[in-house]
Design brief:
Length: 62
Amino acid sequence: MSPEVHYLWILVRSHLDRVRDDERGVSAVELVIITGILIALATAVGWAIYNKVNSKANSISL
């Protein structure tokens, strides 16, 4: 796991831990922010996997 992804994961986990302990609940804005972070993270991971697979596929000689 790259340092950037690890850092984002720690930030999301710490935020979720604070929200879970808070009895007021999660606001809609917080849910949108968390969802945005998770979408960005999933996009980054998908792009990295795509690039790895694509480079390996291009290196296969027919």
